[in-house]
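Annex B. Sample input.
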Amino acid sequence: MDTRTREQARAALLDAGLQLWADGGWPAVTLARAAAAAGTTAADFAEEFPSDIDLTCGIFDDIVNERASSMITAIAEAPPSMAQRLRACLAAMVDDVGADRRRAVVLAEPIGCPELLARRRSANRGFAGMVVTQNAETRAEPEDLLAAGHYCLGGLGELVFAWLDPASPVDRDLVIEHGVRLFEACVRIR
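Annex B, continued. Sample output.
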């Protein structure tokens, strides 16, 4: 497989794996099933993904890395107020999910999978750390910002899932605005 063909095959494999995850949860992701759905073979990717969990973690990592990059860019381009930075960050996250709703799977608690749980916790620490770094000029203590970041992630995840629920009245703007208000309230409580 030449480099371009391999990149395309890898993208197709990850997309097929994401579909399996969205349809059946992380246990449904197998290299064999994803490869078959992507029109490639498991042998083509066995070195990169030696186990099914390695493939699932690869999907997780790609989504989180892409999302984090767009969030960091959004924060950097936002006006310098905490609320505006947070609004830009949340809009980038919500728009990432909105562009491909299957990507919400990384927000769910991966019960029973220590490898995914470790990655999710690391990603959450990264988000909380980003909140602290981007708002260091506020009067809030770094520990308060960190706690607010972690606390709000739980509420934000549930707001996103409500937005994805066709029976829910929650829309994109409500997710973002409530996310900003929730974070601001958490930072100010002492």
